[in-house]
């Protein structure tokens, strides 16, 4: 007999973030035995673990590795969770657009969602509207703190500012750990920094970039995060390509066939970035890759900008993110959030804190 004080959980995606979330979930279940948290489905893109009686063992990761079961289709997962003996939460730890596109279906069936996946909230404006209207009709919850700034409390802070009636004037920051790392070493506040191409190569070797660094340098990841924040601040941004986004990929290298060839040829274009760096230096400034949202003028943009060396954006270290909220209440001294904007444990922390909020609202 199922307990009424029980929540069923389905996890899609068991990579870097998914594995950390599983371990935080196990720890949470021990620290907070009620409501009972029952994992009933876990899958990657190729395998799944689930049973008709909604129980799976305590070794989900080992069982998943050994599983020969294919994942259910997304509508089947929605049916399965909607028929669970008590409320269910879907945790999407993928970066899949297909899973994101299915959120309205899950929400309309009463299944709540927590996720670090940016795709649903930064895709078409229609998908955004479908998600929140399905949630408001069914009462299911949807939280996505880690879709911007990983575990940093960026989204919850912005929601609190808006919900309490503050007027958000401008949001500005460094939203990409990769870009942060690159510019903090290419154009440091002290010293002259390295050659652009050498810094990109080093960042790739240290695992800070995507396998093809062009996927970071095209600015789209930052544009997606800005889309999410702009929408939460009340701007109906159509998509991450509907505002100016500066790509740092030289035109000539846009279509080279591999990331390796891109890195080999990048030194040919070092002089362009060197010019940008020295133009900033001449004014006593440094160059950084930032995103900004000017709420009053509805202007969203992503690209290179110069900052005084004393500015919080200039003084960042390592691969940290920094996000400044300029609001009516905070005046000219913005509310600033800073810290690691990537990494499995901190990203999973944002997912787990969302999960705790949802559990407290549905059980
Ligand atoms: N890592 C970070 O620092 C960080 C920071 C902020 C946000 N995030 C976000 O967190 C999410 C997860 O990131 P990650 O680093 O954990 O990625 P990852 O290591 O690549 O893991 C992704 C997982 O999702 C599974 N998956 C992908 N497409 C799927 C599908 N259609 N159906 C079922 N499973 C699918 C993968 O399975 P297969 O192995 O079978 O493909 C894998 O288990 C992403 O949305 C990412 O943008 C990550």
Task: Give structural notes.
The protein has 363 residues and is of the alpha/beta class. It folds into two domains: 6-151 and 345-362, NAD(P)-binding Rossmann-like Domain (Rossmann fold), CATH 3.40.50.720; 154-340, Dihydrodipicolinate Reductase, domain 2. The chain is built from 15 helices and eleven strands. It has helices at residues 16-31, 60-66, 74-82, 97-101, 103-108, 119-122, 125-138, 154-163, 177-186, 196-205, 214-217, 220-232, 259-265, 270-282, 344-362; strands at 6-12, 36-43, 48-50, 88-92, 112-114, 142-143, 168-174, 285-294, 299-308, 320-327, 335-340. The strands form two sheets. Strands 3-2-1-4-5-6 form a six-stranded mixed sheet, with helices on both faces. It has a five-stranded antiparallel sheet with strand order 9-8-7-10-11. Helix 1 packs across helix 15 and helix 9 crosses helix 10 (196-205). The chain starts with 5 loop residues before the first strand and ends with a helix. The model has no long low-confidence stretch (mean pLDDT 96). The structure holds NADP nicotinamide-adenine-dinucleotide phosphate. NADP nicotinamide-adenine-dinucleotide phosphate (NAP) is lined by residues 12-18, 43-46, 71, 93-96, 98-99, 116-118, 146, 150, 342-344, 347.
């Amino acid at each position: 007999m199922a307990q009424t004080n029980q929540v069923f959980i389905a996890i899609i995606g068991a990579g870097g973030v998914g594995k950390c979330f599983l371990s935080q979930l196990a720890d949470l279940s021990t620290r907070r035995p009620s409501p009972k948290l029952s994992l009933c489905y876990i899958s990657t893109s190729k395998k799944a673990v689930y049973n008709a009686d909604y129980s799976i063992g305590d070794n989900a990761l080992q069982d998943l590795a050994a599983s020969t079961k294919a994942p259910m289709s997304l509508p089947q997962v929605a049916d399965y969770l909607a028929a669970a003996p008590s409320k269910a939460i879907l945790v999407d730890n993928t970066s899949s657009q297909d899973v994101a596109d299915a959120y309205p279906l899950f929400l309309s069936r009463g299944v709540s969602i927590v996720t670090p996946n940016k795709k649903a909230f930064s895709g078409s404006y229609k998908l955004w509207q479908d998600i929140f209207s399905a949630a408001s009709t069914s009462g299911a919850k949807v939280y996505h703190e880690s879709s911007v700034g990983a575990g940093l409390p960026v989204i919850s802070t912005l929601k609190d500012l808006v919900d309490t009636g503050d007027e958000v004037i401008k949001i500005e920051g460094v939203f990409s750990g990769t870009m942060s790392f690159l510019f903090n070493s290419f154009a440091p506040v002290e010293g002259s920094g390295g050659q652009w191409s050498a810094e990109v190569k080093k960042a790739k070797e240290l695992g800070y970039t995507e396998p093809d660094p062009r996927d970071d340098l095209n600015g789209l990841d930052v544009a997606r995060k800005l889309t999410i924040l702009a929408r939460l601040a009340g701007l109906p941004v159509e998509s991450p390509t509907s505002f100016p986004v500066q790509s740092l990929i030289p035109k000539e290298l846009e279509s080279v066939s591999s990331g390796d060839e891109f890195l080999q040829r990048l030194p040919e274009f070092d002089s362009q970035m060197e010019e940008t760096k020295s133009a900033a230096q001449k004014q006593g400034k440094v160059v950084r890759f930032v995103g900004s949202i000017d709420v009053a003028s509805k202007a969203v943009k992503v690209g290179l900008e110069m900052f005084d060396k004393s500015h919080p954006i200039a003084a960042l270290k390592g691969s940290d993110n920094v996000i400044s909220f300029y609001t009516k209440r905070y005046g000219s001294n913005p509310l600033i959030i800073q810290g690691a904007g990537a990494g499995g444990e901190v990203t999973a922390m944002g997912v787990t804190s969302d999960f705790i909020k949802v559990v407290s609202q549905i059980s």
